[in-house]
């Protein structure tokens, strides 16, 4: 069995910041499951299936990436796919405190699962899906923030 990681997130939508973490993780792990969180408490712009389709499109050339979704505890999903690790991207120190709490709880629930934190590239340190959606909503230029298929999907959402 190889090194398998789960890269979880809402990905509403996937940004170049997310893609940076996925690409770098793909160099470290034999397989990466990019998993869209199906969180009923959030009101996403894109459906789970739309988010998965966008991720598949922008990662199609990364041979060891699989796209999936999950609901419930991440550790249960990690067990299901025999993952050794979780990959989490950090933009700023403020992300670390929240991620540390989640990581500590995951360790209590499943001690064999490690979390690998990766700092995003500096040029993406401000980037979030929320910011991208806000700029796209008002017809701002997001071409440097998201891959082209995501830009098109956002324009379509906000022009309807």
From TrEMBL:
Its cofactor is Mg(2+). Pathway: Cofactor biosynthesis; coenzyme A biosynthesis; CoA from (R)-pantothenate: step 4/5. Keywords: ATP-binding, Coenzyme A biosynthesis, Cytoplasm, Magnesium, Nucleotide-binding, Nucleotidyltransferase, Transferase. Its EC number is 2.7.7.3. Residues 6-134 form the Cytidyltransferase-like domain. InterPro entries: Cyt_trans-like, PPAT, Rossmann-like_a/b/a_fold. The record marks 18 as: Transition state stabilizer. It holds the Pfam family CTP_transf_like. GO terms for molecular function: nucleotidyltransferase activity. The keyword Lipoprotein does not apply. It catalyses: (R)-4'-phosphopantetheine + ATP + H(+) = 3'-dephospho-CoA + diphosphate. It is found in: Cytoplasm. ATP binds at residues 10-11, 18, 89-91, 99, 124-130. Substrate binds at residues 10, 42, 74, 88. It comes from the Bacteria. Reversibly transfers an adenylyl group from ATP to 4'-phosphopantetheine, yielding dephospho-CoA (dPCoA) and pyrophosphate. Belongs to the bacterial CoaD family. Homohexamer. NCBIfam families: coaD_prev_kdtB, cyt_tran_rel. This is Phosphopantetheine adenylyltransferase. It comes from Bacillus carboniphilus. The lineage of its organism: Bacteria, Bacillati, Bacillota, Bacilli, Bacillales.
């Amino acid at each position: 069995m190889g090194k398998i990681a789960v890269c979880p997130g809402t990905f509403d939508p996937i940004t170049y910041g997310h893609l940076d973490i996925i690409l770098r993780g793909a160099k470290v792990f034999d397989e990466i499951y990019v998993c869209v969180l199906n969180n009923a408490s959030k009101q996403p712009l894109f459906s789970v299936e739309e988010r998965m389709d966008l991720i598949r499109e922008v990662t199609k050339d990364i041979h060891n990436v699989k796209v999936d979704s999950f609901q419930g505890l991440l550790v249960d999903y990690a067990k299901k796919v025999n993952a050794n690790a979780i990959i989490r991207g950090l933009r700023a120190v403020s992300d670390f405190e929240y991620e540390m709490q989640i990581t500590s709880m995951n360790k209590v629930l499943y001690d064999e699962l490690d979390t690998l934190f990766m700092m995003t590239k500096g040029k993406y340190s401000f980037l979030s899906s929320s910011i991208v959606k806000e700029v796209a909503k008002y017809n701002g230029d997001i071409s440097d923030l998201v891959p082209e298929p995501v830009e098109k999907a956002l324009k379509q959402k906000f022009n309807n």
